[in-house]
Records
---
Amino acid sequence: MFVTGDFTLKDATGKEFTTKKGCSLCRCGLSSNKPFCDGAHKGVFQDESRANK
Ligand code: FES
């Protein structure tokens, strides 16, 4: 999921992540850099077109 705009991304404890004006968030749970997508979803799912929207 690619997110753009003016936002603040926080974890469950309230710690803020440094983001730019846009970032890709992991929806599959496979990323080694959660909450961000690191591309680990590629080649894993049948319908990859939905992995990062
Ligand atoms: S959506 Fe999880 S690694 Fe890309």
Note: The chain has a mean pLDDT of 88.
---
Amino acid sequence: MGEVILSSKNLVKTYRNGKDRLIVLDGININIVSGSINTIVGESGSGKSTLLNVLSSLDSFDQGDLVIDGKDIKSLSEEGLSKFRNRTIGFIFQFHHLLPDFTVNENILMPIWIKSGYKKNQESLNLLDDFGLIKLKDKYPNEISGGERQRVAIIRAIINNPKIIFADEPSGNLDEKNSIKLIDLFKTINRDYGTTILLTTHNPQIASIGSKVFELKSGELKEK
Ligand SMILES: Nc1ncnc2c1ncn2[C@@H]1O[C@H](COP(=O)(O)OP(=O)(O)OP(=O)(O)O)[C@@H](O)[C@H]1O
Ligand SMILES: [Mg+2]
């Protein structure tokens, strides 16, 4: 067993609903081993997106503890947290969120501009080349397919060399062929860079790439 890169203890997350409270996460305990692929399944509305947002430190929680890469998330200031995220974490959302007015290459470079204020053009081009997407470099998001957009979003998520990638339903609107390409891309990134991956999915084929598969049900997470 490798070292644990993410650990949560009794995480609770509720949403206010008028004067009621909806308990979405009811004591989540999870340990994620560095360099592993982990998948989370669960019915629609079971809280998968909420869980991913909380575990990736994008969203707050009501109770419990969360430690990522040795950092106690509750102890970080707003600014510290945002620096930590930029350095440690990559995100891929269900809908690709590429910026429409920038080319593929510029979209990939965006996190680097934010992080260090300068271009690492060659790194982006190398990644596009490695993953067979170099011909897309000067195209705009609306000039490429949905599957290609999703793969570009994954490359953008790894350009800063994150330790963990969180992906919420990355195959949500892809067909079978593109889903398989997406699985291959995740596996390659995991193998070549040792990046830890945590993703949610409705697709059993994608879920099966996890060395651990979890199910979220009634606010609790169980390993399948
Ligand atoms: N911002 C919010 N405020 C109040 N309730 C919310 C909020 N976001 C989500 N919920 C509720 O929390 C529950 C979990 O939602 P969540 O989006 O995490 O589920 P999910 O498992 O990702 O669903 P899906 O598979 O459809 O994406 C749902 O009942 C939802 O209505
Ligand atoms: Mg969701």
Note: The first helix runs from residue 48 to 55.
---
Amino acid sequence: MFVLGAVFGSFACCQAWRWRYRIQGKKPLGKRSVCMSCKYTLKWYDNVPVISWIMLRGKCRKCGKKIGYAEILSELGLGTAFAMIGHVYVVPTIYYWTVLATKPMSLAILVATIVLLLIMLVVLTILSVYDAKWGELPVLLLVLVVSLGAVILGLKIWTTILDDGDVLQLLISAVSGVAILAGVCWAIYKASNERLMGGGDWILALAIALAIGDWWLSLWAMFLANLLGDIIMMPSLIQKGNHVLHFGPFLMIGFVLAIWLGSALPSLFNL
Ligand SMILES: [Zn+2]
């Protein structure tokens, strides 16, 4: 799962650059990856996630220009995120496969949820890289990630109905989660006159809250995103004075940690 995540992390980082070029109306970069400085076309051995970056010490093989930290961080980050989803979803699903197979519909929904979660994490990584590099969030990608979050919540509601669970309680919990995550981000965005938080952040928070579908875990995601954001960004915020915090990457970290903490599967299937 880590290797798969690292490969998609590499893909996500390239996609951020491609979106940037598309939005700015520049000539597309072509099919193969190139050095952003000298346009050297990368060979396959320059493209191995994590390993190539370390071997090249973060520099272009040809011109020696620095590649940047977004590449290695997105590969390591998404690799770790995939490994964590593997831990709480994929491993238990394989382990309890024969038990779960007695309810084929529930199993199908569970597998669909895992796949959609992984796709959502890839899109969130593209958004995080884009946010960290250029301080913006492309609207189309935000729409995509909110849609994914809504479908994941829809699947959770469906599972609850199949298990004769309390749908109303789930809906109240999910809506409360949206209020906690997206509501607070929106309030900070408005109250600070768009200085402390970007306009896209509350939409990103909305997508995450929908996918979590639980007020308690949404609170955890919010708390962890803020805590990590403060610890990591505070030194540079103080140094540069008034500066917008690019909250996107931290929201994603909070999201993954909340899912991991929630270990949704056992409670979901009462195993
Ligand atoms: Zn180069």
Note: The pocket of zinc ion is lined by residues 35, 37-38, 40, 60, 62-63, 65 (CB under 6 Å).
---
Amino acid sequence: MSSILEPSAVAKEFNYLKTLSPKQTIVDSRIEQNEIHLFLEPLVDPQCPSCGKTTNRIHDFHERVVRDIDFEGFKVFLHVKMRRVRCPCGCVGRERIDWLGKRLRITDRMVAYAQSLLASGMTVSAVSRQLKLDWDLIKKLNLWRLRSGLTQQKSEP
Ligand SMILES: [Zn+2]
């Protein structure tokens, strides 16, 4: 199988990513087999997770690798440079990324996509196979989906 991606397709993905993440930029990219790896670095100072103030006092960095929704048949992996702040308020903690709300190895929009497939009636196994994601992860997403459905029903008059 060819793993050469059209330059126009790469440009499209970069634009696509900009809408996902205006606070990050792509500093490097790699195509391996059927995978695209994009390396992201932040463009703006992080916010303290405790007091919410923007700070430039960085304690340390680490890389988080998350899977995003597929692009042109390729699996997309984002290597996100995450910062730990040392805020004047006394907090030492990890910055939050808008589109990585869940403590999972996938982006929020991948969560939403998997849940939309489950909502359409696909089984956990079928979604797991189609997205090539762990069965356990899809099972968890399905439980969350069902639970939030129940909560919504309860709050309806
Ligand atoms: Zn703070």
Note: The pocket of zinc ion is lined by residues 48, 50-51, 53, 87, 89, 91 (CB under 6 Å).
